[in-house]
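User: For my dataset I need records formatted as: sequence, then structure tokens, nothing else. Please produce one.
Assistant:
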Amino acid sequence: MYRKSNNMNKERVELLKKFRDEDANDPFPIYGLAMEYLHELPDEAWALFDVLLAQHSDYLPVYYTAAHFLLEQGKEEQAKELLRKGIELSITQKNDKATRELRSALEQLEF
């Protein structure tokens, strides 16, 4: 699950923006920004998740978090599809822990 803080850390946001601008090929600052924006700027958070899914589709952490975000928006089918894609990627990357977490999340939605 992602952090539930409602206080966006402006210094961290600025630092993440700087890192993102310095290296557009690094998905971590984009993900970090999305996490910072999650509660106060959800549209901006989703826009960043969308960038990650389109341009850094091999960045595994985004699948669980973005799926959870979609669930909170009432988009269960889209969340399920994202979890399925994350499961496929985690298997490809041989990340057993992520596979278990993503499968567990999907199973909870399906039952």
